Amino acid sequence: MRWNGVIQKYRSYLPFDEDVQIISLNEGNTPLIKADRLAEIIAPKANLQLYLKYEGLNPTGSFKDRGMTAAITQAVHEGAKTVICASTGNTAASAAAYAARAGLRCLVLVPEGKIALGKLAASLAYGAEVISIDGSFDDGLDMVREIVERQPIALVNSVNPWRLEGQKTGAFEIIDQLDGRSPDWHCLPVGNAGNISAYWMGYKQYDKGRPRILGGQAAGSAPIVTGKVVEKPETIATAIRIGNPARWRQALEALDESGGIITAVTDDDILASWNLLAKTEGVFVEPASATGIAALKQQIEMGAIDPTNKTAVCILTGHGLKDPGTAVAQATDPHTLPATIEALEKYLAGS
How far is CA 178 from the centre of its chain? Predict the structure, then answer.
């Protein structure tokens, strides 16, 4: 059966009017990859059934497309001609693509010097008007929230409830891919906290089992963990470099209702998990995507999670090509050889 996007697939679970014109790029239907080698590294001999939900294979390379198809669909339905968002990169790229698909003007505000090259390039390629601000993501979010009160513009950040309606379909897919059951643990990065809130909405609505939620924040950008706003968040994981999450309250509700955990992990731990994903499972993600893996590994090592005979799904939120600069910076330099077969044989022999 042809896949026509998350709204078409899960229409009966979404609150759209019957006559709505769906704006889709056939998002969703991302693979759930069994990660046996990685499971054995982070939980030896525990029979941990570990899965990777690879959201980096959405049309613009991140999970944001699930929510953006819903937000742009509703914006068009309500007659919007212009959409706007603040972003650390992934929302900007997704908004720009879906706005282009719908024929809308798109403005994105990004923190100057704090957006990965791949995300900036995509936003520009899709035709968005990219505005770099001398401030943080949180400053940009304040600005766009105020401008939509003054101008006839649709806001498509995760404060838009339609974003969560689209993103919750990820929970539906996981349960469908696990043959009608939920995992024991659902692990994911937490930045603006829209995704953690949306997944919990989805698990509750689908009503086919509820996992415990494990959220990971970067240590330099962990407002929910510390219980206070971080004025100047810093982390290599740019996608979650957010000091005052818009969905903070909903995230706490998801953690409380699921009996979950939220923890902070260092940039070193994030990069270590990022490396493990690529080198043991062949899955290349942007650094923030590895935060859920890092959090799971940490909590197992601390004894807070018993992995024995458990099932865990880790959400990989964005493709590695979103942040090629970090990948190149972390890689070893290529070997240089003369263009001869003898040199290659000598190299293979280790001499």
Answer: 20
